[in-house]
Structures are given as structure tokens and as C-alpha cells.
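Weekly structure sync, notes
Attendees: PL, DS, HV (note-taker this week)

Item 1: Peptide chain release factor aRF-1
DS walked through the input record. Source organism listed as Halarchaeum salinum. Sequence as pasted into the shared doc:
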Amino acid sequence: MQTSLDRAERIEAVEAANADGDRLVSVAVAHDEALGALLERVEEAHAEAEYLDGQASEPLREAYEAAARALRDVGETPENGVVVYAGVLDGELETDVFTDPPGRIDESVFEHGNAFVTEPLEGGAGADAATVGLVVVERGGAALGRLDESGVTALETFDSDVPGKTRAGGQSADRFRRRREERKREFFASVGEAADRVFDEPDAVALGGTDVTVAAFREGEHLPRRLASRIAGTYAVEHAAEHGLKELASKVRDDVTAVHADAREALEAFFDRLPDGEVAYGRGTVDDALTYGAVERLLVAETVTASERETYAERVEEEGGDELVVIPRSIAGGDRFVEGFDGVGALLRFPVEP
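Item 1 (cont.): predicted structure, written out as C-alpha cells:
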């Protein structure tokens, strides 16, 4: 069984591979396609290559044969698809099989060339679509919803039993105030519990409501940590109903889109510079790079705890680097960054010796 770091090193080797002719074979089988269909195409290509004359075709025939053999060994398409690379490099036949690709493979590939096709290892199609958990909370009630590429979906709405500011006759002001605060805490806690229940793993969370109420909700830390660490901001919204969710979505959409664009740009730069050793990854190596002041830009996955992210942000600021960039798992390459690179990486100003 390969470890996450082993897989990262394997991906790095695949990306760096280069041949002096079109003899490197790449095969990706989509998650919803029968493996046998791609195997048949590879076997047909191998049979055709057998009729080619000249020594130059021998490495390509070997690559086709190795790819077909690897597909037969896999047998059936794994849950997220499979990727096979085969080719003669430095005189040796090399084969690498990814039955656990970083993301779901939605499109099959069969190509040969002087480099491997690595797009299937960059995450599944549609992975860069942001999903935002919407929470509107005000004294009279709350609404929870989801914003994604299909629009706004209302998930749950409920009323509160927090009494108004006017107390019933005969109640002392102090006793009424205490009861009101207790009911408000209970209501806020129920909103947090509902959010924990209905939200899976949103890329961001937006809080809406009347200014005082939404500020009190956030400061009271009623959301579970996994959601609290993803809060994109708080926004003024008056009504805890479906139209309030749509109002909140319209306000947060541009903010989340900008954040995702920044994350995608940073992650693309990380993978582009990876083969040349112009990046650092893993907590230990990145810590050394920060100590030497070598970090140009720091990338931290959303899976890293909020307290760790805060510490990293302070360190990169102290060392004169650019602002920390949080990488969502859902963007292209996000899963690969989390699983293969420990969720912590850096673009470097200069190389740091390990």
C-alpha cells in the first residue's frame, strides 16, 4: 500500500518524465466506464504497432503491452477510476498504476507521446465549483441553505422562542433579562447543531442577519469548529427565510469566487513549479523555509486546523511573505494537495536545502 507521500513522489516522477519520441503511453479510465473498453483499445493499438517496422517502434510496443497487462491486473474500474502510465525511460520499461487517483476521473484518456498526460491526476471535473453554507439568524428565527453552481437551495428554517424586549407584567427586569439571554443561547445552540447536521463540507460559510444578532451568534462560537473555520464573513440580512438566503447568497458570491480564483492560481503555480524544485511541502520542510525567509507565498489546506492556520499566517507575515492562501479540497488539485503534500506548501523565493 502506498502512503500519501509515496503517491506524491510518484505523481512528481510522472510529471517529470520525458522521452525522445512518442513512446510514453497514458491511459485513464473514467469512474463510470467499463475498464474492458479501454483495455480493448490498448490491445488494438498494440496489435497495430506489431506491424510497424524499425527499432524505433519497439519501445512503443513495450509500453502498450505493459499498459494492457496493468489494466488486466486491475480487473474492474475502481470507485474513482484508474490511471496507468507505461513507457521506456532511460532504457528501462516503467509502469505506474494509480487505482486511488487524487480525485474522481470523469473522462477517459488514451494517448501516447513524449510526455505523460497528467490531467487525470489533477482532480475530477467540476471540482472548482464553490459550495457555500448559508446561515441567516435573527431574533425571530433562522434559515439554513446552500449556494452552489445550481443556485440557492433552502435546507431548513425554524422559528425561535426568544421573547421580545418588552417583558410581561410583574416580571422583574433582571429576571426577564436572564430568561431572555438563556433562551437566546439555547436558540443559537440549536442553529449551530442544525448547521452541523445539514452541512457536509462546504468550501465556505456565510453568516447573515441583523448586525447585532449575527455578531452575537458568531462571537458565541455556536458553530462546530469545522464550519467556524470556513466563515467567509458576516452580512446584513433582515429576514430568516428563503428570500433572506438568496439575499445572503448574492452578497457572498463575489467574495467566495474571488477567494477560489486566488486559491486556484496559487495551486496551479505550486504544481507548475514542483518539477523544478521551486516549492516546499510538508510541515517540516515548510517550517524550515519560513525560518530562512524563503517563502514567497504560503499555501495551507482547509483541512489544517484554524489555530494552525492562524499560526502560519502570523509566521509568513513576520518573514515578509505574501498573505497565506487557504486551499479548498474541492478545487482542481485540492485533494491531491491535501493527501499528497500534507496540506501545507510554499512557493519559494530561493531553494532551501532539506
